[in-house]
Amino acid sequence: MTMLPSKARVLHRLLQFRSTCFGSPSCGKAASSRLVLGIETSCDETGAAVLDETGEILGESLHSQKVVHLRTGGVIPMVAQQLHRENIERVVQEALERSNVDPSQLSAVATTVKPGLALSLGIGLKFSQKFVRQHNKPFIPIHHMEAHALTVRMLQPVAFPFLVLLVSGGHSLLAVARGVDDFLLLGRTLDEAPGDTLDKVARRLSLIKHPQCSTLSGGQAIELLAKDGDRTRFRFTTPMGQTYDCCFSFAGLRNQVTMAIMKKEAEEGIEQGTLLSCVNDIAAATQHTVATHLAKRTHRAILFCKANGLLPSSSPTLVLSGGVASNQYIRKALSIITEATGLQLLCPPAKFCTDNGVMIAWNGVERLREGKGILPPSVDVCYEPKAPLGVDMTAEVKAAAIRLQSIRMKIPN
Ligand code: KG4
Ligand code: ZN
After folding, report:
1. What pLDDT is stored for residue 70 in this prediction?
2. Ligand closest to CA 323
3. Helix axes 328-341, 279-307, angle to 10 degrees
């Protein structure tokens, strides 16, 4: 459709008005809606964002350390801390400037304080406590996984309770979200998280040397290469087939993959650190096994929820989030399970699945609305590197020992 020039000009002026109006003190929206600044530094992203109460993002800024950590072969906490220290002030300043919001207009500051890398959490928390004291603003400490779980509600109305699968570089958990700060933990990883496994497999395969993968995270590199791979050329056993609970384990799979890589290196007569000819097939088989493992544990969690009336009978929902949730193949695997069990599957877009300041600000909005966990600026808060989410129900899930009817995991590439 073509637009008349005059109509286009009017639209342009309206859009200009909308963007200048955002966040300005005299603007109805900013004046009537409470504003929250969110700050994230739990791992390797320095993020900040200002949101209004409706979930409108007024301004955001994100500094990713990904490329630095790719070069050093993983996150070195002291390096992460230094990069947060160098960037936090600028990132927060940018988010405020882009929103056209002055600190005096904020209703609260929300910051990730758990779980995460101690050195990284410390930078965000110290900055935030100084900031709230300086501007005399309430402080809302945020649980990073609670924020991942609630992000979807910023984008569309999703009523509690819903089931959530959170998969990232640091976490793997299944929980029922019953309220903003009310979770039932059904499953968690017993060793490492799927993103960590994919990052380590990518490193072992030296994918950083692959022309298409030099700036991609391990998970992204595996997803890209798997598209041209034949997953049937390597057969890895899906973990925990004989354990009838909803917990996860990925270390054994990583071991299987490493052994396969070593065998291939010997066959091809090449040294570790050289790209194998079969990287696409190994990527495809690894991704498939991760996807199948996540799908099976989630299937059992859905059956447990159904047996115990933990989800509503009308539009029961599974929310998939966290960095690994941006993987399209994994999304398809989960959609096979939700289709078979009558749930709707919701995944935030990739940019909201990985760590960012927006999700923290949104969690602040949710808590502000309900008046939960809002502290005066003077209260001293400590960060917690380890912090479980919700009430631990993993023993009850295990005791239920639910057997799965087999669902064919024919996942299209
Ligand atoms: O949520 P996130 O940004 O940070 C943590 O809290 O860990 O997740 C980062 C993780 C990394 O391990 C990365 O390899 C993985 O998410 N990841 C992916 C994809 N994109 C990022 N894993 C699989 N497929 C992807 N497309
Ligand atoms: Zn995360």
Report:
1. 86
2. 1
3. 30
Q: Find the 43 Cα to ligand 2 centroid distance in Å.
A: 8
Q: Residue 168 corresponds to which tokens in the numbers above?
A: 């990232």
pLDDT score of 25: 35
Distance 363 CA to ligand 2 centre (A): 13
Ligand 2 midpoint to CA 130 (Å): 24
Best probe residue, ligand 1, of 44, 121, 217 (max atoms within 8 Å of C-beta): 217
pLDDT value for 32: 67
* Low-confidence residues of the chain: pLDDT under 50: 1-30
The span from the CA of 311 to the CA of 162, in Å, is: 6
Inter-CA distances, 61 with 93, 197, 253, 355, Å: 9, 28, 36, 12
Instruction: Pick the atom of ligand 1 nearest to 353's CA.
Output: 1
What is the predicted pLDDT for the residue at 202? 97
Q: How much distance in Å is there from the Cα of 217 to the middle of ligand 1?
A: 7
Q: Which ligand is nearest to the CA of 223?
A: 1
Give the residue among 284, 296, 387, 291 at the shortest CA–CA distance from 331: 291
Instruction: Tell me the per-residue pLDDT of 247-279, one tens digit each, with 9 for 90 and over.
Output: 999 999 999 999 999 999 999 999 999 999 999
Ligand 1: residues with CB < 6 A are 43, 168-170, 195-196, 198-199, 217-220, 223, 322-324, 326-327, 354-355
pLDDT at 399: 98
HSE of 282, CA atoms in CB hemisphere, 13 A: 27
C-beta of residue 328 within 8 angstroms of C-beta of residue 413? no
Supply φ then ψ for residue 51, to 5 degrees.
-120, 150
**Residue 217 Cα: closest atom of ligand 1:** 14
Cβ proximity of 385 and 114 under 8 Å: yes
